[in-house]
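Cross-posted from the bioinformatics board.
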Amino acid sequence: MTEINKETPACKMTIGGNIYEAGNAREFKTGDWRSVRPVYIPEKCIQCGLCFPVCPEDAIPVGKDQKRTDFNYDYCKGCGVCAKVCPFGAITMRVEGEE
Amino acid sequence: MAYNVKEVVADKPSRFTSGHRMCAGCGAPPVARMILRALKPEDHAVIANATGCMEVSSFIYPYTAWTDSYIHTAFECAGATLSGVEAAYKSMKKQGKLPDDEHTKFIAFGGDGGTYDIGIQSLSGAMERGHDMTYVCYDNGAYMNTGIQRSSATPKFADTTTSPAGSVIPGKMQSRKDLTEIMEAHHLPYVAQTAAYLNFKDLYEKAEKAIYTEGPTFLNVLAPCPRGWGYPTEDLMQINKLAVETCYWPLYEIENGKYKINYKPAKKLPVEEFLKPQRRFKHLFKLGNEWMIEEFQNEVDRRWEALLKLEEMSNKE
Amino acid sequence: MGIRERLSGNEAAATAMKQINPDVVAAFPITPSTEIPQYFSTFVDNGQVDTEFVAVESEHSAMSACIGAEAAGARAMTATSANGLSLMWEMVYIASSMRLPIVMSLVNRAVSGPLNIHNDHSDAMGVRDAGWIMLFSETNQEAYDNLLMAHRIAENEKVLLPLMVCQDGFITSHSIENIELLEDAKVKEFVGEYHPKHYLLNKKEPIAMGPMDLQAFLFEHKYQQAEAMCNAKQVILDVAKDFEKLTGRKYGFFEEYKLDDAEIAIVCMNSTAGTTKEVVDSLREKGIKAGLLKVRVFRPFPAEEISKALAHVKAVAVLDKADSLNGVGGALFTDVTSGMQVNGVTVPTSSYIYGIGGRDTTTKEIESVYKDLMEDSKKGKIENPYRYLGLRKE
């Protein structure tokens, strides 16, 4: 975990703004940017792979078995690109907060 | 090995992580991520990034979205900065200061502002000097980071905040600069223009070729910007498709001077199909402005024909 | 002990660079520092160094490439002058903020405009707040010695700041002087190897450098630079002590020339100190107690030490080879006088702007400054502290 935050004293901060934990942005959740939410309907999904690479947030987890699972809502910003490219209706967009 | 998007995504973990702060639906992260997936998993990379959208939202202290080593210095000098890194690598390798069995690849990312405009000198210098690196321009056709100002990559007539569609001057009055051709004029071993289309196959294969061709290589990648272009975020892949199918953004590559158009639409779509969904071209569809679409179409046709000729000529025995 | 040679200032700098054998040199030619990359690329092409020489297309790229190389884990050096430094200005700040101990040889020349290729200090003064350690050199020997000490200072863990060694364009850069060089092996041992803790080319620890650093962090990062600059003071002295053991040549923050019993004193930097020493000697023969304080370390500025060294003097003239155009005086003058004020030293002090654009400054002119100082010391106050030396007037 990144120990630097807005309370960190100057002497404990890394010099030059360097960061030595590559990829630590994963600790920064962007899911709260979302106003609409993609809903995954596994029954309709044929695992075609069209949605995997289009997600700007890398919020569609893909296993070693080359199959996707449900969205990672920690990061999904609700852009809807995935729903639009799905030809099988396996992703629908819902307004955040609505069932 | 034939390209399989599922295999690539499943086997190669993302080297540009979640938790970055690009806008929802931005066209740049999917292309950056796929380009980095073209790296061999065992290879380390040093990424240099010009100031721009990608930089200010991927490394906001103390969080970096890059899993490889990464350096940002300023707007206009990603090329020169990476030159220095690459020269250091060469020197240190030669002197035995780095492990023999480790390979590092060098990739620069710059937007069209940092590449076509303020950074073109630094890019040109780095390419001419022959550094072993791949420079990637993610072209979103304006200075998006500072709020959609025109760049030399902005298409003609586009409405931007410094070329507004006014009552006298209807948007940007100049056609876009052809940077891919400028880079080809450096006689690089590999230059390509690509986009996130057809399952990212074109993009991935070109990235792989660029990264693993020795010497300086250049990729120009279309990166649509929903905010700057004015289309709904979910339409990213449709916009990419229309850019290619209208031949506004041809997919082609030049290997040691030989042109290859990687995708020729069976039926070239009229460019207005690409223009229509975008707010920046809204004024082109007003009554009396038909001439603008016609002119736009003529320019697209002219450049497409020229490209076809270049392909033909460069492949003649 | 040592090798006697006759070298120009540029040759001396290039020789120091050859002996340091940095991993990367990136430079672009500009008068009067052009010879440095010329000599150096000859060393590269003749296999005398291990360096990768990057013949960049501009000074902006020279500094960018040095930043990239140093961040990668290499030792990087460059040389420039005047407008070259102006063009790199953006990257000069970025180099120090990224805490990269790049070493630059700055051959001082007037910054345009109008265009002029000759010596003054307007280039160096333009980057005095950029967070670089700045050493000034009176002679070719000092330019050489300062470069040999540079990496030990800049790369010190408590410092990690870039460093520039200044010398006067043409006056020393193109004048051949006797010089004592160290043997290559001794330089290698003295300078040592560079082993940065974190660097881009370390596959085992990928790092990110050069963030977007917002309101919650930039302030603290700037403070860290300030602290490093303060730390540099002791490191500069420690390195000088080691250098003295090796060479017998003694360096401090500044040189005091007949200053301890002086009643009137000049403060200046670089080659003008040589002319001033000549004048001090002749005035001393006449029984006039003239002295000189030659600043070597301009950044970090040794305000307290300079104030103490000048406390006993009755009048001081600070000679600036660049005007700050602030309606007050030169940069060295404002630093010296504010240092005195803070340290409770009250000596009538005036600013002399001189030698702009390579205008010769003669012993006669320096003498006239001492003459002014005698008047000032009698009056005990300064009526017109902002003066031009050697200016044609009606």
